[in-house]
Specification:
Elements: E1 3-6, E2 10-13, E3 18-21, E4 24-26, H1 30-42, E5 47-48, H2 49-57, H3 64-82, E6 87-90, E7 94-97, E8 101-104, H4 111-124, H5 146-150, H6 155-166, H7 174-190, H8 195-211, H9 216-232, H10 237-249, H11 253-266, H12 271-283, H13 287-300, H14 305-317, H15 321-334, H16 339-351, H17 355-368, H18 373-385, H19 389-400, H20 407-415, H21 434-445, H22 449-461, H23 467-470, H24 473-480, H25 487-506
Antiparallel strand pairs: 1-2, 1-8, 2-3, 3-4, 5-7, 6-7
Transmembrane segments: 120-141
DNA-binding region: 1-99
Protein name: Winged helix-turn-helix domain-containing protein
Amino acid sequence: MACYKLGDDLMLDVTKRSLTKSGIEVDLSELSYRLLKCLVEHAPHLVSHQELLEQVWQGTVVSDDTIKKRVSRLREVIQKAAQKNSIVAERGLGYRFTLEITPLSPPIHTLSSAFKYSKYVVFALIASLIFAVVLISNIVVSKPDMNSVAGQIDATDTQQLLSEVSQYLSLRDEQDINRGILRLEQLLEQFPNTPAVLCALSDLYLIKYQLYEPTDKTLQYALNYAKAAAKYNPTEAWTYVTLANAKILSGQITVALEQIDKANKLAPNWVDVYVTQAKAYRLRGETSNAWNSIQIAYSKQPDNPYVRLERANVLITKNMFSWAEKNITELLLELNSDPFVRIAKTELLLASKQYLAALDWQTQLHSEFPESFQVTFLNAITNDLNGKPDLADRDFKYLANRATIFSSISQLFLALRGHSNNTLLDNKMNELSISYLENALYPLTLGESKQFLVQLEAAIEHNFATEYFLQMPRVQTAVLNGPNETLNTHATFSQIKESLYIMNQQKRIKRVPIKS
């Protein structure tokens, strides 16, 4: 429900995120708004402290006293506006909203806006397209501007076209994806430069690239269709988000963020922009920026499964594993067969040092998607962490010969075990935080442990923070048993790992002052 009448003359509009009294807006902070929305949507039921932490504070750890003060401030605001007590505290249990609530019908939408709203769920299914170091993420494709599409075809054909296009946006089966691409290319011949078709084609090629065919040719198709969409439809936010997702998979985070900024100017209230922005920041290691972006998306659409998926990914980077596990467990129940959600589960298990559990989980996932470069990369790491270096080498060799962002680092991991190293270390186009680890691994493959430690500290300064890479036996062996290894090298490596652990732990809890 988009609107609620509270008491006699208060109106909570969820769509506009506003509280008004007789048409005049009541000033509320973002946190107070989320608190009010949570209490109203649960009324007349009690809302526990734990539920408030999850739905209102969204991962920030705060004390019961902080919650009490925030509720008290909101109560004062509502009581001043409604002249009635609105929130009752039940000691030790939680809070209950007591004003009479009358759900109201949302505004009537035009054909254009109605299409945009209804397509949200369908286009959200693309949201798990991109996942880095695990590259899982969330492409909730932008809602197309019906006017630009209608300029080429009449209204009836427009509806039919977009309805058909939407059928191809949630595909994961390889044969279905190939059939979808074939049909969309036929539609593109019939309706040239239509943003819905161009964006859908780009998205399908990205899925194909990630799950079945990690070749430069496949990625280039995705990029070309996304570029064409943005070129011929410069007023469509959807096209820039699609292009940003393709650029992220190319490792070009700066360019991706530039495209996101363009989309944000066209559609500043659209969650897809913030989800993609969060993903780009996360993969570059900018956890704080990623958290800010995904929290905006989550505040707007907390039930969107792909907003929750990217939020879980960011929670993993913040070492908030229990929160991430809760999100992923719920998503697995809803989207159990989706490989990107299952990849997120592997990343969580590795990050929380559950290596044996990760091995069991990955074995099944890799058997289903043996050509996925994301799955195979995690499989290699999981095997190495579980003392199966030969199986890890098998996977790294597969990746070393594929056109993906993991090609160079896979060659370096192979070189640590004595395999020939043909890596030129030309990773200027790869802006993912993992690329800084490559800079450190390269001298290590040459037996230069001290230079490795220098570069590793530089990598951490550039936001590299994935601890389990440093726990891999091939890395530890190369550092501690190398030709230039000394007691000082050993101690320095231990100190760096300890500092990284502490740094990651500090990301978990962030207490912030209350703002009215």
